[in-house]
């Protein structure tokens, strides 16, 4: 009985260690994508090719699309993997657009969990990432992408299941 409890405690400790490491990895991934997006937003000559290059750089991740809006929030450029054209659609009513619009030149915004209305993640839960595009400190638009929660679960969280009947729950800190 003592040996069984010892082994069970060791398994739980190992699982906690893996869980903490995975959480840190997810946070690092989101922060890195956000920084990359912010850096790309400093480029005022964004076009389809620069957006496609961004996607190529993140091809082994859950990111499937990226877009650029004008000052009114209408999508002007996009690149995606398997998505119908969303050019002309407006995201002006989305919080991530408003926050990125208010951000400084080097700032980016990591949004709250929402259901996507456009792009390759349409109808799915996403974490939106957006950055302001500015020229001479004048707002020019927003560049944005999304991380689908399902992709995060597949790439990061499924490996946490220690036992066949384990379940993973995502909880907010509030």
Task: Summarize the SSE layout with pairings.
Layout: H1 2-41, H2 48-57, E1 65-69, E2 75-80, H3 95-102, E3 108-110, E4 114-115, E5 125-135, E6 138-148, H4 149-157
Provide a concise account of the structure shown.
By secondary structure, this protein is of the alpha+beta class. The chain has helices spanning 2-41, 48-57, 95-102, 149-157, and strands at 65-69, 75-80, 108-110, 114-115, 125-135, 138-148.
Give an overview of the whole structure.
This protein is an alpha+beta fold. It contains 4 helices and 6 strands; from the N terminus they run ααββαββββα. The chain has helices at 2-41, 48-57, 95-102, 149-157; strands at 65-69, 75-80, 108-110, 114-115, 125-135, 138-148. Strands 1, 2, 3, 4, 5 and 6 form a 6-stranded antiparallel sheet that branches. The chain is elongated. The chain starts with a helix and ends in a 17-residue tail after the last helix. The mean pLDDT is 80.
Please summarize the sheet with the most strands.
6 strands, antiparallel
Helix share of residues? 25-40%
What's the overall geometry?
Answer: elongated
**Secondary-structure-derived class:** alpha+beta
- Helix and strand run: HHEEHEEEEH
Put simply, the count of helices is: 4
**Beta-strand residue percentage:** 15-25%
If you average the pLDDT, what whole number results?
A: 80
**Low-pLDDT residue intervals, each spanning 5 or more residues:** none
| Radius of gyration, in angstroms, nearest whole number | 19 Å
Strand count = 6
Which descriptors would you attach to this protein?
4 helices, 22% strand, 6-stranded antiparallel sheet, alpha+beta, 174 residues
